[in-house]
């Protein structure tokens, strides 16, 4: 690892918020206090700190546990999801009996069981352009534990506007990365990623998988960066990004420069208020209705429940319609709908001759995004048959089969 980057920084915690440590604090956090870089003052800063976790999933799990164990005074958690058994391979905040329960409730119980001295402020909401500034205001550090591009851009922009340092982490399969975005003295997320990738070109963990220990490593590194920002005197990863591949056991460091022309943190920002991030990232299929739009979607859709009813009535795939699965082969190996024609998204236009335009084709993927892109690509290529998108993809299909 290189040693370039900003000089060691001061704490983000104002000195007037520090309070003396009790005898119980001194005992509980004695191993922290014995570290010369922490000491009594560093532990006081931790007890005075307010850290917000955006996401109580794979990255948020280790971050929450280690921040709570370290004695962070107040831990905020924002997440609108529920615990699913597929989460438990990596989301160590949650347990099997909590499947189906709100993640923020499960996270609160885990944190309070580990350290009842920590105040937990939990919000079971999805961050939006309407609530993000209010939700993230007043926190000393924000940790990004999200897994989708619209929320990453939203959290970044909100943190820039609020002047709050953002600890970024991301994982995919056995790869991970960590950095600190602090627009007051370095780059922001948009400086590194001015534009989002084309929808469907970057698989999610649900589509591509993730080695279970990988978010444990990266989330713990995010917690470390938060501790460094709180305690002070360290060299945080501002202007530097650490990359790690756990499978090869190799890592590296990349310099990350501030972009003077960045639209949100540059010299003359053009984005001064939060925008529609789903539209910006293109995750809402063309013609689909947004929360503020009126009118109907121009793309034909079918729900998983309706498709099940169609099959139950004797209309199996291959009879009067085609069921097209555009996921990758390794995804299909895990689960598939019987009778599906399997053509990955990247091959669907070249192989559209395998489709029968005289019959309806119901297209599906993992969650409904790639299938929508497949429909758009086929339509643009001149396919004349009826194309219908399975809303929610295999996730909705599997959920609709639970009785």
Keywords:
403 residues, 8-stranded mixed beta sheet, 15 helices, disordered N terminus, Oxidized Rhodanese, domain 1, 5-stranded parallel beta sheet, alpha/beta, 13 strands, Rossmann fold, 32% helix
Describe this structure in words.
This protein has two domains: 15-281, Rossmann fold, CATH 3.40.50.720; 300-400, Oxidized Rhodanese, domain 1, CATH 3.40.250. The protein contains 15 helices and 13 strands. The chain has helices spanning 23-28, 30-33, 39-48, 60-70, 103-114, 132-136, 149-162, 189-192, 205-208, 213-231, 277-281, 304-312, 329-334, 369-380, 393-400; strands at 50-54, 74-78, 119-123, 141-144, 166-172, 175-181, 240-245, 250-255, 300-302, 321-325, 341-342, 360-364, 387-390. The termini are far apart.
Radius of gyration: 23 Å
User: What is the CATH C-level name of the largest domain?
Assistant: Alpha Beta
> What is the makeup of the main sheet?
8 strands, mixed
Order of helices and strands: HHHEHEHEHEHEEHHHEEHEHEHEEHEH
Strand content: 15-25%
Tell me the span between the first and last alpha carbons.
52 Å
Describe the secondary structure blueprint for this structure.
Elements: H1 23-28, H2 30-33, H3 39-48, E1 50-54, H4 60-70, E2 74-78, H5 103-114, E3 119-123, H6 132-136, E4 141-144, H7 149-162, E5 166-172, E6 175-181, H8 189-192, H9 205-208, H10 213-231, E7 240-245, E8 250-255, H11 277-281, E9 300-302, H12 304-312, E10 321-325, H13 329-334, E11 341-342, E12 360-364, H14 369-380, E13 387-390, H15 393-400
Helix pairs in contact: 4-5, 4-10
């Amino acid at each position: 690892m290189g040693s370039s980057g900003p000089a060691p920084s001061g704490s983000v915690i104002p000195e007037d918020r520090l309070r003396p440590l009790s005898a119980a604090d001194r005992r509980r956090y004695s191993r922290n206090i014995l570290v010369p870089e922490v000491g009594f003052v560093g532990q006081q800063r931790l007890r005075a700190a307010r850290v917000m976790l955006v996401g109580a999933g794979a990255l948020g799990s280790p971050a929450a546990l280690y921040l709570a164990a370290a004695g962070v005074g107040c831990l905020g958690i924002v997440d609108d999801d529920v615990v699913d058994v597929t989460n438990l391979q990596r989301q160590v905040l949650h347990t099997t009996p909590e499947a189906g329960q709100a993640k923020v409730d499960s996270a609160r119980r885990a944190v309070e069981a580990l350290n009842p001295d920590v105040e937990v402020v939990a919000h079971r909401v999805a961050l939006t352009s309407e609530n993000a500034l209010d939700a993230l205001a007043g926190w000393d550090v924000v940790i990004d534990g999200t897994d989708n591009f619209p929320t990453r851009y939203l959290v970044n922009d909100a943190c820039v506007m609020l002047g709050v340092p953002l600890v970024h982490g991301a994982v995919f399969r056995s790869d991970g990365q960590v950095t600190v975005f602090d627009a007051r003295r370095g780059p922001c997320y948009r400086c590194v990623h001015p534009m989002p990738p084309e929808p469907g070109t970057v698989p999610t963990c649900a589509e591509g998988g993730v080695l279970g220990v990988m978010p444990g490593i990266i989330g713990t590194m995010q917690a470390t960066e938060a501790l460094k920002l709180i305690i002070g005197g360290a060299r945080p990863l501002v202007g530097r990004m650490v990359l790690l591949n756990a499978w090869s056991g190799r890592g590296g460091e990349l310099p990350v420069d501030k972009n003077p022309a960045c639209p949100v943190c540059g010299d003359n920002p053009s984005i001064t208020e939060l925008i529609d991030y789903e539209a910006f990232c293109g995750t809402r299929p063309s013609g689909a209705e947004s929360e503020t739009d009126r009118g109907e979607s121009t793309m034909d859709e079918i729900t998983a429940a309706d498709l099940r009813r169609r099959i139950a009535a004797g209309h199996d795939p291959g009879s009067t319609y085609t069921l097209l699965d555009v996921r990758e082969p390794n995804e299909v190996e895990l689960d598939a709908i019987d009778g599906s024609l399997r053509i990955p998204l990247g091959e669907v236009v070249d192989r559209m001759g395998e489709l029968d335009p005289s019959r309806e084709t119901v297209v599906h993927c993992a969650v409904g995004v790639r299938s929508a892109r497949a429909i758009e690509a086929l339509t643009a290529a001149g396919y004349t048959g009826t194309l219908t998108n399975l809303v929610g993809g295999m996730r909705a299909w599997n959920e609709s089969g639970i009785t």
